[in-house]
Design brief:
Elements (H helix, E strand, L loop, with lengths): L2 E6 L5 H10 L2 E4 L7 H5 L6 E5 L11 H10 L4 E7 L2 H11 L13 H18 L2 E4 L5 H12 L8 E8 L10 E4 L20 H7 L3 H23 L4 E8 L5 H13 L5 E6 L7
Parallel strand pairs: 1-3, 1-4, 2-3, 4-5, 6-8, 6-9, 7-8
Length: about 280
Amino acid sequence: MELLIISGLSGAGKSSTYKILEDIGYYCIDNLPPALLVAASKLNIKQKLAIIIDSRSKDKYEDLLKETIKLKQSNTEYRLLFLYCDKEEILNRYKYTRRTHPLVSDSNPSLEAAIEAEFKLCKDVLNAADIIIDTTHLTYAKLRKMIIDNFADKDYKGLTIKIISFGYKNGLPNEADLIFDVRCLPNPFYVEELRNHTGLEKCVEDYVFAFEQTNMFLEKILDFIRYSLPFYFDEGKNELVIAIGCTSGHHRSVAFAQRLAVSLTDLEHKVIVLHRDIEKDF
């Protein structure tokens, strides 16, 4: 099991890093007391493990480096990632989010005092870190790229394309990023011998794609998706949901979604197809 210990300044991006690591296959534990680090490292987890330990532990935080020494003594391999940010930028982020800093207390009554106290508290951990990421000027997309570059497996594809067929009569899929309406295409419902079949069956698929307008419609959508995918990836999306809708979600949308999925396999992204309404009544 690969162990990644994450620490850093409050407001420097640990929550975002946590989510990105989950996206790329890590099992993540947040706000673990330092005293439990060695025990957590022995968990029987098949995934890579990421543990966040930060100043929310307050006076116990100073034990973090002592616990890493125990890891070394037990021959447990790990990497320590520290997320850093300039004091002024952290101050601005807290003012923007209006969250309470974990070290605000009677001894540190102001936000500025709490930030200053955390910088002193984290100094030794910062100096011991294997990897330091300064998020002062990083967008989320750039942070995500840095995390993926440093910690993702070599075969990580980076983006999952989920294609959903649906029927407009049952409402739009709320999770969709892109929606394409194929109700303008010839409808197998009005062909008696096809009505009780679905777009998963060859007879319906052959009928839908027997028309030039269907094939041209598919090519136009493919051109758009291939063009726009890099922008979604650069923006930091880990999943792009494409919805294909017809009237009931049984014929045209199903056949179209199937053909679209096959056509996108050359992009080397993970492609998932779901047919939301195929089992519902017409």
